[in-house]
Design brief:
This protein is an all-alpha fold. The protein has 4 helices and no strands. 74% of the residues lie in helices and 0% in strands. The longest helix is centred in the C-terminal third of the chain and has 26 residues.
Length: 101
């Protein structure tokens, strides 16, 4: 998901591609969440990867949200996104607590 912030930047500087890129951000994000169930599989084994992914998702989301005039990022997406990122945080905090014991 390291390409998402660049996608969001392109969406903000290329007005003719903005809507397409916002939809692509939404679709790729939802696809990742659907294809990579939380806490299962290789994308959840390394906490550094989880943290980097969370940072990239949050940065891209913030940039996209500021330019999404057509509400492509709707309430349903926001709910799914928030739940997924919350779980990223849970995994990171459990790892941190394990390290501190």
């Amino acid at each position: 998901m390291q390409h998402l912030p660049q996608m969001a930047i392109f969406a903000s500087i290329l007005p003719d591609k903005k809507e397409t890129l916002i939809k692509e951000f939404r679709n790729q994000t939802l696809d990742f969440f659907a294809a990579n169930p939380r806490r299962i599989g290789i994308n959840w084994n390394c906490t550094m990867d989880v943290a980097i992914r969370a940072a990239n998702l949050l940065l891209a989301y913030d940039l996209i949200s500021q330019i999404d005039n057509n509400k492509i990022i709707d309430q349903e997406f926001k709910k799914i996104f928030a739940n997924e990122l919350y779980d990223h945080g849970i995994i990171l905090s459990k790892t941190w607590n394990t390290l501190m014991l």
